[in-house]
Amino acid sequence: MPEGQAAADRRLPPNGPALRYFLDTEYNGWGGALLSLALVPEHGEELYLTLDWDGALEEWVERNVVPYLDTVPQNLVSARMSRADAARTVAHYLAGDQDPLIIADWPEDIALFNALLVTGPGVMSEVPEMSFRFVALPGFSTAANSKVPHNALHDARALRDHILSLE
User: Fold this and answer.
1) Read out DSSP for the chain?
2) What is the pTM assigned to this prediction?
């Protein structure tokens, strides 16, 4: 989790543009449990989380996602977290930014991110006000451009690199 200088490195001057975070998630098939989440900022420390899950995994997910959950730099390997712990970690990570902008190329990523922040009936993690941008990228696949396809961290990095290359 970013603290001290790592958090300060992500902050932008007051009234400046929002810092963009590129989001990707992996989950157990359509409507399934969230398995991992990555937020990759334009610059600064990345966040990568893996979550506990119950029940059987879809065959495709078991074969193409689960074996690669920990294929990230050692300092970002995440013990499997409860949803509540993951929500607190995301809140802590974003606490240094006043108005982060979360960008994703798949609507389910935004839905799963927001669902994670809801920790109980009428209760949510304390996060800053934030904005979301869904970017449709016809013909672009994060997985096809990722160093480790179907790994949330590497896919989020591929999304960031692609978006920045278009600017």
Assistant:
1) ---HHHHHHH---TTSPPPEEEEEEEESSTT--EEEEEEEESSS--EEEEE---SPPPHHHHHHTGGGTT-S-GGG---EE-HHHHHHHHHHHHTT-SS-EEEESSHHHHHHHHHHHEEETTEE------EEEE---TT--TTTT-SSTT-HHHHHHHHHHHHHHH-
2) 0.89
